[in-house]
């Protein structure tokens, strides 16, 4: 089993660098629509933006008011972010003066019953998407579902996979690449990446967490195990917190804590997810599935569908029409991974910036190229404890974490990681570029000075400058609205968005016009077709 440094050395030639630089990325950014008073928008998803069911770039998540912007897959960081900015700009110009809320945690939330559920039309597929969200409401409440985040999709090049496969460079100490097909090698290597990522996921909320504070209107009937401090203006905060979005107050699901889904291999992961989909929940059974002729949720299992499994990272493959995520993974293995631990960056008009993307490139390559031991129960507890500590107290001076059963300071561990990332940054930049090294240096400054993290910068605005959280975010929303409404869009680009909107509406209409069974039959058939992980015999591609 080769070390990270040995693998980097073997990739140190021009062809290795080229293979490493062939990374593909995609971004999904969520943002609430708000009216001129800062309240959650109550109107339907704007028709001019197209169909939320079928549009490739502009859709909705939980609520009609929760937009989701999706970039095409891209190899170039500048092109990726330019496309994301153009989508924001086109959208904002078609919101009739509404603005985008530029942070993860909602504000000015009145009656939660007035949070409009996302609608996807009259087709069975559309009705199922809405019912799934209705089930989430009954299970966890609507407030949790309107928290926004950024998802980062990542894959490495076919050339890099071939290089690793041919050289028998595996990050899994129990995996013999000569006994696997190339497709199986890729899947198991991605799961090695996932295991390393989960051990180190605390790095992301430390650097990029930007929700250490929130509006008091967000905290209603939630049961939380920590006590907020409060500014004179009514903002709630934790003095050393990084990402309340990732705390028990945010995107968590205690019912899933007992699942123990394994990331030690693709077959074990598939088996765990499928068991959860079939596992009844006594808590959710109390809600009822169909009561007085009206559906409340898709079923009463711990997971209604696979998407309900909350995890800071997912193994993914693009699905075919009618295919479930696990079926796609069973068919052809892992194609890319989805990072889901990112708060919306309030200092960027599009929720993420180029220094973050470059850091994520380095971080995920590091997770891929480093040895990745299998995880046991003790390791899972260590992962959870480290993440919770950083989420709630990440900037606390002298904070100690646990590394393989031993105490280590957060700062020392970060410096060890950054030393390895530096080798990658130098290799990726080559002789004439400095983008990766500059990005790494930018975030390295936050190791010894936590005020330079995103959460530190947020608290500086709210505590040091004494500005109410909601007022500060509203001003950001105004600033970004002005930036995006004046952002240059060529006539050709605007027309492309108009054409895409029209095409998506036509696609939805076509789906709704096609003959199909009634909704009860549709659901029965859908859940009959749950993939069976025991049938997985390895992809041969």
TrEMBL record:
InterPro entries xref list: Gln_synth/guanido_kin_cat_dom, Glu_cys_ligase, Glut_cys_ligase
Top-level lineage group: Bacteria
Pathway in which this enzyme or protein is active: Sulfur metabolism; glutathione biosynthesis; glutathione from L-cysteine and L-glutamate: step 1/2
Matches recorded under Pfam families: Glu_cys_ligase
Keyword field contains Nucleotide-binding: yes
Keywords per UniProt: ATP-binding, Glutathione biosynthesis, Ligase, Nucleotide-binding
Catalytic reaction equation(s): L-cysteine + L-glutamate + ATP = gamma-L-glutamyl-L-cysteine + ADP + phosphate + H(+)
Glutamate--cysteine ligase domain mapped to chain residues: 9-390
A single MF term (Gene Ontology): glutamate-cysteine ligase activity
EC numbers: 6.3.2.2
Protein name, UniProt field: Glutamate--cysteine ligase
Highest classification ranks of the organism: Bacteria, Pseudomonadati, Pseudomonadota, Gammaproteobacteria, Alteromonadales
Designated gene of the protein: gshA
């Amino acid at each position: 089993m080769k070390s990270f440094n040995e693998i980097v050395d073997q990739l140190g030639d021009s062809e290795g660098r080229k293979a490493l630089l062939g990374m593909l990325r995609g971004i999904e950014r969520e943002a609430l629509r708000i009216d001129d008073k800062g309240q959650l928008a109550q109107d339907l998803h704007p028709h001019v933006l197209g169909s939320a069911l079928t549009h490739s770039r502009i859709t909705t998540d939980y609520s009609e008011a929760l937009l989701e912007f999706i970039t095409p897959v891209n190899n170039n960081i500048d092109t990726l972010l330019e496309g994301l900015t153009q989508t924001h700009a086109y959208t904002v110009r078609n919101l009739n003066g509404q603005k985008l809320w530029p942070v993860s945690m909602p504000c000015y939330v009145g009656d939660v019953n007035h949070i409009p559920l996302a609608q996807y039309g009259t087709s069975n597929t559309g009705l199922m998407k809405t019912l799934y969200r209705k089930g989430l409401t009954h299970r966890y409440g609507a407030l949790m579902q309107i928290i926004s985040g950024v998802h980062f999709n990542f894959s490495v090049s076919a050339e890099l996979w071939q290089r690793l496969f041919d050289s028998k460079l595996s990050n899994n100490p129990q995996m013999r690449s000569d006994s696997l097909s190339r497709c199986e090698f890729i899947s198991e290597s991605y799961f090695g990446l996932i295991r390393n990522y989960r051990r180190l996921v605390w790095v992301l909320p430390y650097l990029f967490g930007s929700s250490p504070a929130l509006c008091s209107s967000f905290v209603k009937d939630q049961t939380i195990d920590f006590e907020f401090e409060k500014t004179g203006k009514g903002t709630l905060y934790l003095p050393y917190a990084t990402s309340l979005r990732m705390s028990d107050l945010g995107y968590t699901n205690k019912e899933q804590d007992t699942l123990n889904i394994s990331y030690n291999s693709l077959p074990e992961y598939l088996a765990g997810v499928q068991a959860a989909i079939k596992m009844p929940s006594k808590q959710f059974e109390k809600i009822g599935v169909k009561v007085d002729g009206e559906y409340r949720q898709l079923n009463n299992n711990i997971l209604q569908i696979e998407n309900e499994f909350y995890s800071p990272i997912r193994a993914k493959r693009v699905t075919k029409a009618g295919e479930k995520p696990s079926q796609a993974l069973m068919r052809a293995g892992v194609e890319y991974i989805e990072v889901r631990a990112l708060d919306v960056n309030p200092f960027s008009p599009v929720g993420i910036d180029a220094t973050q993307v470059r850091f994520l490139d380095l971080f995920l390559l590091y997770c891929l190229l480093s040895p990745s031991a299998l995880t046991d129960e003790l390791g899972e507890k260590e992962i959870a404890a480290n993440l919770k500590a950083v989420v709630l107290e990440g900037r606390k001076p002298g904070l100690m974490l646990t590394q393989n059963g031993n105490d280590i300071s957060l700062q020392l561990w970060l410096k060890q990681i950054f030393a390895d990332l530096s080798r990658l940054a130098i290799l990726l930049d080559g002789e004439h570029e400095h983008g990766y090294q500059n990005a790494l240096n930018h975030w390295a400054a936050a190791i010894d000075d936590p005020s330079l993290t995103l959460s530190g910068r947020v608290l500086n605005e709210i505590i040091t400058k004494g500005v109410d959280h909601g007022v500060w975010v509203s001003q950001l929303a105004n600033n970004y609205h002005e930036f995006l409404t004046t952002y240059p869009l060529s006539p050709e680009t605007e027309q492309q968005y108009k054409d895409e909107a029209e095409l998506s509406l036509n696609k939805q209409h076509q789906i709704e016009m096609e003959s199909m069974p009634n909704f009860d039959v549709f659901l029965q058939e859908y859940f009959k077709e749950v993939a069976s992980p025991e049938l997985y015999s390895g992809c041969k591609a």
